[in-house]
Amino acid sequence: MRTGRPREFDLDQKLDSAVLVFWRQGYEGTAISDLTDALGINRPSLYAAFGNKESLFRRVLERYSEQRAVYLLESLKEPTARSVVEHLLRGASEATTGRGLPNGCLLVQGALATGPDSAPIRQELDALRRSGETAIQARLKRAQDEGDLPPDADTVELARYVCTLLQGIAVQAAGGATRAQLYRVCEMTMAGWDTLVAASTS
Asked: Within a 13 Å sphere around the CA of 33, how many CA atoms are in the beta-carbon half?
């Protein structure tokens, strides 16, 4: 029985190349020709390996999250709410200013400007960002239950504030802010951590 011609390229390697294209250009700004050029394969091979542009982008999101957003999961393992937030901010500063990589964050920039046809992609990115915020809020709530945060601190509000900072770091990085400059933002934020917590109390 014929099984078809085997692929002559490494799927993970091609997927990594696709990550860079979407990261630089966003979903809507990326054409199939951009992908075939960057991956070094023709259109039929691209479709056979990854499906259409939307399905490839979903694979790219998974790959990107595994490689570049791992700092989120690592930060949530920190022992205190303060150290969780500090590691999140520093991790975002590092992930969005990687040497030899595009600046900014694919999850933030990937579909900031999309038309109606790209609504499912925008919604998926929104859901990914919300899931991150939910995970941070759950960790802060645990810190509260453990006595690490005041019982009347608003963990939902704090998580929203932290995520706003994380997304702001990504936007600043995309605009050319250096890692050192973003580290300074982290330092300023943590210097006012007790005030932030107090401001969230009801």
From this structure: 0
